[in-house]
Amino acid sequence: MALIDGQPSVLLQNVSKLIRQKVKDQVELVEKFAFTLYGNVAHDDLVGRIDSDLYGAALSLWQTFNSHHSDDAMIRVFNPEIARHGWESKHTIVELVIKDMPFLVDSLRIALNRHNITAHLLLHHPLQTFRDAQGNITEFHKLGTKANPSTKQTVFHVEIDRMTDKTAMDQLTTELNSVMQDVSLAVADWQPTKAKLEQVIADLAKHAGVASAEQLQQAADFLNWLAKDNFTLLGYRQYAIVPIAGDYKIEGIADSALGLMRRSTSRDLMLSDLPDVARKQALSSDLLILTKTNNKSRVHRPAYIDYIGIKRFDAKGQVVGEDRFIGLYSSSLYNNSAADIPLLKNKLAKVMEQSGFAVGTHAYKALLNILETYPRDELIQADHDELLDVATGVLQMQERDMTRLFLRKDAFGRFVSAMVYVPRERYNTQLRKDTQRILQGFLGSDEPVEFTTYFSESVLARTHYFVRINDSTVEFNVKEIEQNLIEAARTWEDKLATALVGSFGEVRGRELGNKYINAFPRAYKDEMLPNDALVDIAKLEALSADHPLEMLFYRPQEESADSKAVRLNLFHKDSPIHLSDVLPMLENFGLRVIGETPYAVRCPDGSVGWVLNFSMEINGAMPADFEKAQQLFQEAFDKVWKGDLEDDGFNRLILGAGLTGREASLLRAFAKYKRQIGGTFSQAYIESTFGRYPQLANLLVKLFNSKFDPAATATAEATAAIEAEILAQLEQVANLDDDRIIRRFLAIIQAIVRTNYFQNAADGSQKPYISFKVRPSQIPDMPLPLPFFEIFVYSPKVEGVHLRFGKVARGGLRWSDRREDFRTEVLGLVKAQQVKNTVIVPVGAKGGFVCKKLPTTGGREAWLNEGKACYRTFIRALLDITDNIVAGAIVPPKSVVRLDEDDPYLVVAADKGTATFSDIANGISLEYNHWLGDAFASGGSNGYDHKGMGITARGGWESVKRHFREVGIDCQTTDFTCVGIGDMAGDVFGNGMLLSEHIRLQVAFNHMHIFVDPNPDAASSFVERQRMFNLPTSTWDDYNKALISEGGGIFLRSAKSIKLTPQMQQMLGVTVASLTPNEFIRAALMMEVDLIWNGGIGTYVKASDESHAEVGDRASEPLRVNGKEVKARIIGEGGNLGTTQRGRIEYAMNGGRINTDFIDNVGGVDCSDNEVNIKILLNALVASGDMTLKQRNDLLYSMTNDVADIVINDCYRQTQSISVSMLLGAEQLKEYTRFIHALEKDGKLNRELEFLPSDEALAERMVKGLGLTRPEMAILTAYGKMVLKEQLVTPEVSEAPYFKQLLLGAFPQVLVDKFATEMETHPLKAEIIATKLANMLVNDMGANFVQRMMEETGSSVSEVAISYAIARELFDLPGIWSKLEALDTAIPAELQTRLLFQLRRTMRRVTRWFLRHRNKTLSIGDTVEFFKPALTRVSEKLDTLLARAEADSLTLYAQKLQEQQVPAEVARYMAQLSTVFSVMDIAQVAAAEQADLLLVAEIYFKLGDKLDLHWFLEQITQQPVANHWQALARASYREELDWQQRALAQVVVHSCNGSCVAEDVVGNWLVANDSVLARWRLMLAEFKTTKSHEFAKFSVALRELMLLSHHCDSVK
After folding, report:
1. How far apart are CA 1127 and CA 1123, in angstroms?
2. What is the pLDDT of residues 561-590, one digit of tens each?
3. Beta strand pairing status for 1058-1059 and 1074-1075?
């Protein structure tokens, strides 16, 4: 309220101030008037009002009030303006001052409402005033508070709708004046009128004629009841009824009018003018006429004025007059029980009596209730017969669902009272309006039909219609009107119920009716026909939890033939489908949405179904066969909604090109694949291309079907014809980009060799994913390197690719997060995998998949479950198109057309994101009955636990130990500092940091923490790391802080900064006070430390000229440093990609020791491959029943250490080979350059991809005396093995009995002991032998050994392998090699490497000898058996066979080796090695001459000594070479010299006739041939005079030696 606790509001206080400031007269009265006027106004009505306007309004009304002191009404209707009135209002103002009387407020409101004017504010106050002689107010008070006031007036301030029309305002003023006059008349004459009524009552008996006492009493009681303020008297007039010539005239008595009757002139009326019923009633003996007038009251209540006529009779009972009262029944008539109202109680009693119902019965009570609740006006006006008919009719309805009409025509023909009963649930505004219209029509009325509706607990709603009629004689048929009302009341629901029964039968129809009759919203009913709802109900009924969407796509029948308009109804359970969800889908189908209307169908059981109606147009041409298009669209849209089909522009082809949803998915899959292989066009552009050329899209699908549909009967000619048609249509494609896109799609289809597109799921449905196998070499402009095969997998939920570089290939499957370029990621990984796999049987392979619909809710578990589901799809898609082996025979996959050769080998492994998925893959392998079984994916629950074995870390640690050894440190016994990447919970990092008890870990970091221990204690920190590793899970925060040295700590990566302690500053070599976590890690990576051990994820080192974008790992970008900035002595790459290859090379060029990740962490791959090969062997035994699965698993577990030993040996040997190959540095650069060229020539190597130096860079290194770095040598080592693995898969090798030992050596000894025979039939026998042989060749002899031998001798790969195998076996290379390896840390690493290199060089000579001279009819074993005894005997007696000086030289060399801690046996072997190389020639001479072996040997060596052949050999060996051809020449000179020495020795041996003393026969021969030898001696003298020689000199000298042997032989 405006007054709060008696205090005026601030606004009223401001009004008061204005009054005091501006008003000059009667200030206090004006202020009081304002407070009176506004004091009780609601706060809401004052909000936003201005004090000056309130002041103006109050002052204006005061002035009107003050100036008007008469009883008549003073009315002002005006629009206040500042300029004219000093205040303003947005409304029109009505000011009214009038003598106070009843009915003023009601009558004023009625008047405004009658003119449809809204009163926004109505203030009124009845006041009494005291005025002076001039009429001015001297004081005023609330009415009734003072005696003898001058005036009693009510003031009105009304704000109404703004009126701008002066005429309208004048009319309103006139109307209000008229109303006020009516009120004044009614009020002024109320007492006389009441007195007149009382007089009539008193005289009633006099004028009752022959009325019975009962009639008289009833009339008197009723009139007395009215006189007791139960009737608001508004007027009176007396009438006389005068007979005139067969008629009667009803005429008003002059001056008898009171109240409102004064304002009307009495109009005489002839009785014959009235309707028959009225005439009868007028002349009947009834004392009372009770009806209503034609006019609505303008006073008190806006109802039709009630008419009470009291007849006056003469003594004969003839009607002679009437006392007519008009007014309004008071509320007591309507609120009190009818039994309490005179006249009504009698009428009801008579009706009840006539009904015949016994008192107290149900029917009696029901009928009485009907009457009690019947409209009181009707009870009064209707006679008892009419009431009985209506009441009985209502009772007979028995609360049933039906519509009834009861009509009663007013006796005077002025109105018809219509009582309409309808079921309450049917009643609504529309039905009411329809009923009004029907009644108007049938009754011929043009007046508005009044109505009053009554609701009770009854199922029926009753509406009383009051129809004013123009023709009092109108006739009507109640049943006809009722029937029309029934039809009008027959709701949409009724029609639906009928349709349901007609469509579904009685039982089901009623069941559905109960469910759906009242379920549809009004908007739906307004728009749809009941028959439309039949279809929708059928669709809604088809919905379920598993099938939440139904639809109907159709063309409206009303549309013309050229219209593109279509409709779509979507039906969904429980929740609405939002337009924002559906609109993009529809637009992607090529539809333009014009309108959408959702309808909620709420069933009685609480379930909700949604019907969404879309009005659309097709962009493009309307499909010719719309029925087919309808089916295609509905199937496709359903799949899109379920997520089985992607929502993109390819769906336009369903309506635009007539493709199925799956065919559109096929093109989509090609687009996704095109994107992955480097397409420059966006998918949106590709979609638009096919939108422009739908026929070409159709042809591409047709071509694909022709090639790969197993059920198709298309011939090669038919397929070629389709291709020709595509090419012909491409000629019509004007846009070059469109042409390129479509040709790319054509190339992809042409490169596909297999697909699962036509395979069905177990239930016969289409598989929700597509996979196709491609030959990348057949697709132009593919990114390099080109895999041998690749499989692309597409589905709406997952995409993936599997790249293979050979038929037997393996590699991990990565859960990638690079959706746009995961193939690029996988291609980079498979390139690394290819070189990593050189140590194992399969070549490189790699797979990767991306999850496209990872959940955003549900946490990590939901996220992981979706990843597993995508992984399962990926695995299935791969196996779908992979051959199987059953009983040794190839079994192609079902429903797959194969355009390639048999291809059964598919092995996968874990990778980033899939570490725990191997069991899933193996489960699917078993589900597919794949021949590999659980060997399909290594590392499962029945495989080797890599973390438990620590195999990857142990393999990498072999590299670390070698690096340390080669810088003079034994890291297993000597403390060293370390920076680590990872944490102790990780496999590679955790295991790695426990492989030496002398690790002093200064800094380590993962994605959460940075561990800092500036001066760690190796022993205690090792124990703590071991404790953390053994925890179920741990972070660096679990480290015992008490063990961290002073100045260290554990810091969050999320911290803003790390304050550096002096110890940290010293350790990092910085002076700043603090660093951010990222800056700290960078500093740690650049600090001086012995080892960086990478056991984590990320790329942290790059080259200076390499951009971060080229690296690709954005997450690690803030931490990344350049290779030349790393001051660590060694980097151990336990994790993948920790360093880029260019970063490694830069680091190595700056003195760092590093291999590559594929060298260091090969242990895991090697272990997995061993597991696979063992499982393949044992699974065959399980399948044949020779072993149970449990026995197999137990055996697998028991061999864990044996497998680990095999793997660690492979790791050890590989790094050893690199070290030996690196020994001579720049000296060997030319031969490695030659090897690179050979690999490039054969298409095996892309130098740029592997970051190997160009020829110019190699030449520059040659000048600087620099060789290849270890990372580069690692690449060459890998490629050497890679190429050999492929080349050695040949029967010449795999079927050679000698190489069986390589097959057996690939397995633990326990398996060899039990299953050697079964190993002979291993499916991968040839590949295992080739792999082991390739590794043996490269590890022993270097990456380029075989290529060099082939180049120098023209031999084949298998010949080189066989010759080397002979040499290796003959000289017991494995034995001496292992003895040298046993000297790790016992002798200097440099010496050990030189000795190994010496072995390598000699074995190269021996191999070359066998390539030139071996008897190819002999097997490896036979050859070794022939030469081995000779080697043994010569080695044992070598000291006695050599010239003394040479023997002393060998002894001296052996002694020097022993002084360097080389065992005597090994020293002697190494000292003799170069010399005993000649044993093959000696043995053959001895055999040829049938001479004693030792005699031949002695002659051979001493003759060589006498002829200085050994000195000459040294000159050849020391001759520098400038190019490849000179190197070949030098090698040929050595061979030629060996051959000539052998020839001369054979001549000398031949001369002794098999029995002689070596020294004597040599001496005699020399004397005998002295003249011939003179030329040779002269030649040697020439050599000895200079230190450098031309190659031509050697050629000439060797020719002289050859001539010497020939001459001597001929002499002999």
Report:
1. 9
2. 788 899 999 998 888 888 888 899 999 999
3. antiparallel
CA distance 322 to 869: 98
Cα separation of the two ends of the chain: 149
Tell how strand 231-244 and strand 258-259 pair up: antiparallel
Q: Are 707 and 899 in contact (CB under 8 A)?
A: yes
Q: For position 1363, what pLDDT does the model report?
A: 95
Tokens of 551: 């639809």
The reported pLDDT for the residue numbered 1554 is 58
Give CA torsion, residues 1001, 1006, 1012, 1016, to 10 deg.
-20
Taking the C-alpha atoms of residue 299 and residue 328, their distance in angstroms, rounded to an integer, is: 9
Instruction: Return d(Cα 485, Cα 545) in angstroms, integer.
Output: 43
Cα gap 744→738, rounded to integer Å: 10
Number of separate helices (H) and strands (E) present in the chain? 66, 41
**Identity of residue 419:** M
Of 401 and 392, the one with more pLDDT: 392
What's the rounded Cα separation, in Å, for the pair 988 and 1167? 14
Rounded CA-CA distance 1534/1523 in Å is 17
Q: In this predicted model, what pLDDT tens digit does every residue of 176-225 receive, in sequence order?
A: 998 899 899 888 889 999 999 999 998 888 888 888 888 888 888 999 99
What is the C-alpha to C-alpha distance for residues 1345 and 1281, in angstroms, rounded to an integer? 11
User: Which token pair is 1259?
Assistant: 């030449």
Closest CA to 663 of 694, 641, 642, 618: 694
Q: Which residues pair with 850 in a beta bridge?
A: 799, 816
What HEC string does 96-153 produce? EEEECCCCHHHHHHHHHHHCCCCEEEEEEEEEEEEECCCCCEEEEEECCCCCCCCEEE
How far from the centroid of its chain's Cα atoms is residue 128's Cα?
A: 80
Phi, psi of 123 (to 5 degrees): -110, 135
Q: Are 1323 and 1385 in contact (CB under 8 A)?
A: no
Q: What are 1093's strand-pairing partners?
A: 980, 1132
Q: How far apart are CA 1365 and CA 930, in angstroms?
A: 37
How many whole angstroms separate alpha carbon 123 and alpha carbon 41?
8
Give the max Cα distance, the chain: 199
Give yes or no for a contact between 98 and 294, defined as CB atoms under 8 angstroms apart.
no
Six token digits for residue 568: 């779509």
Q: Give the mean pLDDT of 1299-1306.
A: 93
Residues labelled catalytic: 846
DSSP states along 1324-1366:
THHHHHHHHHHHHHHHHH-TTHHHHHHHHH---HHHHHHHHHH
- Cα separation, 253 vs 227, in Å, equals 23
